[in-house]
Write a structure and sequence with these properties.
Layout: H1 3-12, H2 16-43, H3 48-59
Length: 66
């Protein structure tokens, strides 16, 4: 059995209250992991091309306010 399968089985055993607590914890955990990945990608220059493209579109008047 894989680690994911073990976790799935344990989640299935949670009470509704525990499941709600788990959802809150996992949402924060997932968000933190995503933020760390974006920060790492930005620091490594992986987002530079996208930023340049966005700035160019803004400066050419193609961007619109949302």
């Amino acid at each position: 059995m894989t680690s994911v399968e073990v976790v799935e089985k344990e989640i299935e055993k949670l009470s509704l209250r525990e499941l709600a607590e788990f959802r809150l914890w996992f949402a924060k955990y997932d968000s933190d992991v995503w933020d760390a990945q974006i920060e790492a990608d930005a620091a490594a220059g992986k987002l530079d091309a996208l930023a340049k493209e966005a700035i160019a579109e803004y400066e050419s008047g193609k961007a619109r306010q949302i």
